[in-house]
Amino acid sequence: MGLDSISLTPGMSNNLINLQHTAQLTAQIQERLATGKKVNLSLDNPVEFFTSQNMLDQTTDLTSLSIC
């Protein structure tokens, strides 16, 4: 039985789409928990990503100045 012989009812198709969306959200939340970052990619939210990156860069600069 090949994949092209599988047919889904509209309800089953809708459930499958919802499950795929839930899986994507779960993966995104797991990544946030693992990294501690709210936004991991500039594609997720460019403004927050680059603001965060700028703050991290400033922190690194200030840390290097305070060590010297």
Summarize the structure.
The protein is mainly α and 68 residues long. It has helices spanning 10-35, 46-67.
Walkthrough of the structure:
It contains two helices and no strands. The radius of gyration is 21 Å and the shape is rod-shaped. The chain is an all-alpha fold. The chain has two domains: 8-37; 38-68, no CATH class. The longest helix is centred in the N-terminal third of the chain and has 26 residues, at 10-35. The protein is 71% helix and 0% strand.
Structural class: mainly alpha
**Helix residue percentage:** over 70%
Number of domain modules = 2
How much beta, percentage-wise? under 5%
Beta strands, count? 0
Per the principal axes of the C-alpha atoms, what is the gross shape? rod-shaped
Flag low-confidence runs: none
Main sheet: strands, sense, barrel: none
Cα distance spanning the termini: 70 Å
The rounded Rg comes to 21 Å
Overall mean pLDDT: 84
Q: What's the helix-strand series?
A: HH
The total of helices stands at: 2
For this entry, give a set of tags.
mainly alpha, 68 residues, 2 domains
Write the layout of secondary structure elements.
Blueprint: H1 10-35, H2 46-67
